[in-house]
Design goal:
Strand order of the largest sheet: 3-2-1-4-5-7-6
Order of helices and strands: HHHHEHEHEEHEHHEHHHE
Number of helices: 12
Number of strands: 7
Structural class: alpha/beta
Shape: globular
Oligomer: single chain
Radius of gyration: 18 Å
Distance between the termini: 32 Å
Length: 268
């Protein structure tokens, strides 16, 4: 999985570093907001997670699949709680640490480079994962390890892809090759995977229409600025973004791919 993920995101760090070249050494979260959130709907999605996880300043939070740390930093600054980000890819984890240092949040936010499938030490009051689990087909191991990192009664929040209708072969190929998503469950199967790992009180929300609009707007906004980006970052990097954004917009417009938010807690 790591190899396919690295191929998928190989253009993100060069783009980010190019954009950072125009920013001051000391950064604010507002400076980074267009750059460091790889999930959908930006900080609005994190605000919703904070509400559903009932996060307080004393909560110990784990962000699974932290990327370059945008979610973890926002959570820590917004609530004042300590956050640990777990990230599989070393280069993204290193960048997460650099950006956290530059925003002055290193005392509250730390990052671990590792694989959730292999487990990590420590227990948390809650974890969240935004658009990460779609890359992980080993659901039994995934959710058993996610249960192991929670204190009894701890809460979870997930945003993820699901199948609404059976994906056709072309869609399956696009997901596997361009999104590093080898397979997807339907919502009932997703719930069952969580329940088998010991999670309960599971609620969910179908956010497909919201995400359909969001990915289309993302594509249009990037297209609008593509000439500026081409001059700054080069044709190959910009074309990689365009290809990816177009592929995701096409997948959502097909009606078989959907988006879901799920939340609940570990049963005693």
């Amino acid at each position: 999985m790591q190899e396919s993920m690295t191929r998928m995101y190989q253009y993100r760090l060069p783009f980010l570093r190019g954009e950072l070249a125009d920013l001051p050494e000391r950064l604010t979260l507002k400076d980074l907001m267009p750059l460091d959130h790889y999930h959908y709907c930006g900080t609005a999605a994190i605000d919703l997670a904070i509400e559903r996880l009932k996060v307080t300043p004393e909560s110990q939070i784990l962000d699974i699949g932290a990327g370059v740390g945008g979610t973890a930093r926002y959570l820590a600054q917004r609530v004042g709680c300590p956050v640990t980000g777990l990230e599989l890819q070393p280069q993204l984890c290193q960048m997460a640490g650099e950006l956290t240092e530059r925003t002055g949040l290193s005392e509250r936010v730390k990052f671990i480079q590792g694989d959730i499938l292999e487990g990590i030490t420590g227990q948390f009051d809650a974890w969240l994962s935004l658009l990460v689990f779609l890359h992980i087909p080993e659901r039994k191991t995934l959710f058993s390890q996610c249960a192991a990192v929670l204190k009894p009664g701890g809460r979870f929040y997930i945003e993820d892809y699901v199948q609404l209708q059976p994906l056709n072969p072309k869609e399956q190929g696009t997901l596997a090759q361009m999104v590093a998503c080898p397979e997807l469950p339907f919502i009932p199967a997703y719930q069952q995977h969580l329940e088998q790992a010991g999670f309960g009180h599971i609620a969910w929300e179908n956010v497909t229409p919201l995400w359909q609009d969001w990915v289309q707007q993302r594509l249009m906004q990037f297209q609008h600025k593509q000439e500026h980006y081409r001059q700054k970052h080069g044709d190959d990097l910009v074309q990689s973004y365009l290809n990816f954004y177009q592929a995701v917009a096409d997948l959502f417009s097909g009606g078989n791919l959907g988006g879901v938010r799920m939340w609940g807690q570990l049963l005693p």
